[in-house]
Amino acid sequence: MTRDYRVLIDCRDEKGLVYKISKAFYDFGLNVEKNREFVDAQNGKFFMRSEVSGKFDPKALEAELKLVLPEKANIRLFEPRPKRIVLMATKESHCLGDILIRHEARELEAQIVGVVSNYDSLRSLVEKFEIPYVHVSHEGLQRAEHEEKIMAELEKFGEIDYIVLAKYMRILTPEFVSRYDERIINIHHSFLPAFIGANPYKQAYDRGVKIIGATAHFVNNNLDEGPIIAQDVIPIDHTMDWRQMRNAGRDVEKIVLAKALKLALEDKIFVYANKTVIFD
C-alpha cells in the first residue's frame, strides 16, 4: 500500500548530503513530492524536509538514512494525520474562538481533544463546538498544586501532540514544561521586554508606539524566551486609543497563533539552539 510520509533530517553539514538522501529515497522506490533544504553555514548545520510517497517500511528507510548520514543525525518520519491537541485558556476568547472556528472549518490538521481553563467563563463558547471543557480553578491553590490537577486532567485525554496556550495567563513551572518539551505553543504581544505587566496596550498608548504585533513561540523555562515560530506586526497611529490598539492587537495575536499551530501540525518546524528553522 502506498504511504505518504514527511521526513525531517538535521545533522552536521557535509558534502553530498542531498545526493545521499535522494539516492536513499530512490533506492526505496519513493517519489519525492516536495523537498526543501537549508544549511546554517555559521554553525555547520544541515536541515532537510521532504514529503515522500511509495510502498516502503519507514523503519527500514530510517535505518538506511542512518548509514549515509553523519553520526548523530536526527531523523524523524511523520505520517500525516490529525494531531491531538489541547487548548488552554483563561478569560480571553479571541485566540481560543479563532482556533475553534478554524478547526470546525477543517482548516487545521488537528483533533481538539479538550479545552482546559482556570476559569469557567468560556465553557458556553467551547461547548457550542461539542468539545470537552475542563475547569481547573486555581483559587486557594499553590502553583504546583494547581498544575498537578491540570496534568491529571491532561492525562485523561491520552496522547497529546501539542498544548496550545490560547491566552492562558499563568506562568508554567519547569516540571510542567519539561513534561511537554517543545510541545507547548504560546502567544503574546510583541512589546516584550517592554510594557511588562497589566494592560500593556495602555502602556504602549501612553508611550506613543507606532506598531503593534504578536509572537508565537515554544515554551521553555525562560519566560517568553522560547524558540520563536511566527511573528507579525501592523502599523497604528495617533488616532487610535488604547482600546482600539488592544482590539487590533488581538486580531494579530489570533492570526499569528493560528499560523504557528498550522506549521507545527504540518511538521514544518526544526528547533535548534533556541531558534527555529521553518520550511513553510
Describe the overall structure:
The protein is of the alpha/beta class and 280 residues long. It has two domains: 3-78, 2-Layer Sandwich (Alpha-Beta Plaits); 83-278, Rossmann fold, CATH 3.40.50. The protein has eight helices and 13 strands. It has a seven-stranded mixed β-sheet with strand order 7-6-5-8-9-10-11, sandwiched between helices. A four-stranded antiparallel β-sheet has the order 2-3-1-4, with helices on one face. Helix 4 (123-127) links the parallel strand 6 and strand 7. The chain is globular.
SSE order and pairing:
Elements: E1 3-12, H1 17-27, E2 31-40, E3 45-54, H2 58-68, E4 74-78, E5 83-89, H3 94-104, E6 110-117, H4 123-127, E7 133-135, H5 143-156, E8 162-165, H6 174-179, E9 184-189, H7 200-207, E10 211-218, E11 228-235, H8 242-265, E12 269-272, E13 275-278
Parallel strand pairs: 5-6, 5-8, 6-7, 8-9
Antiparallel strand pairs: 1-3, 1-4, 2-3, 9-10, 10-11, 12-13
Helix pairs in contact: 1-2, 3-8, 7-8
Major β-sheet profile: 7 strands, mixed
Known CATH architecture of the largest domain:
3-Layer(aba) Sandwich
CATH homologous superfamily title of the largest domain: Formyl transferase, N-terminal domain
Mean pLDDT: 95
> What is the terminal separation in angstroms?
28 Å
Total count of domains: 2
Helix coverage percent: 25-40%
CATH fold assignment of the largest domain? Rossmann fold
Order of helices and strands: EHEEHEEHEHEHEHEHEEHEE
